[in-house]
Amino acid sequence: MRANTTLAVLCLTAVLAGCAIAPEPADPMSAPSRVSPFSAQSPGSQLPPGWQPWTLSRFKQATDYRLVGYQGKTVVQARAEGAASGLKHPLALDPKTQPYLHWQWKVPALIPSADNTVRHLEDSPARVIVSFAGDREKLDLHDRIFFDQIKLVSGQELPYATLMYIWENRVAHDTVIPNRHTGRIRMIVVQSGSDGLGRWQSITRNIVDDYRRAFGEEPGHITAVGIMTDSDNTGETAQAYYGDIGFRSAPRTQQVASQ
Question: Whole-model pTM?
Fold first, then answer.
């Protein structure tokens, strides 16, 4: 029973860590340096080039993602009913040349019982996830063992470091939430509570500053960006809309749409 419990915990942690988002490619420079915009596609069509489904576990129900028309623009509609999966886009990008990550999202409602500080309640209606390359020789013994265990369970390597930008229920804005199993994964609360629900939110983050604050070191190259709406731990329903995501050399003025 103890072995089965350990395996289950590792599988769950691999899901929460987003271990499949960015296995580093054999040739990192073969990945694109720009995120393909959702708005360039037609509603109901295939995902833009580079974007692909990201299955966390064959034991998890998949979140439904589809391109829809919204106020004259094509966006991604995500709906999770006790589900967890995402969309990912490989990248090869030096964050110091384009340190500002910008995106738009809209969340109609919170997941009532979600709490990202509690392992079995770690759900969020909206996440933007960024993974980074780095020198794995710098990992401490605990993280090396953990990374090896995840690879054994999932067949894929964890990114050297992962930042998750989330919409949280209660935790204060800008709080950094650590992962309970590894120091190489951090969640940052970019919106909290009901303020802003039902309206498009425009978010800009200095990803270099966020990385330094979260990990206490300089960031390596960005290897992928992803989105995820998940409700598998609470078993509830979550919905979100995602607009275009991009990296820029200068910040964009914060704007919030009314609807």
Answer: 0.88
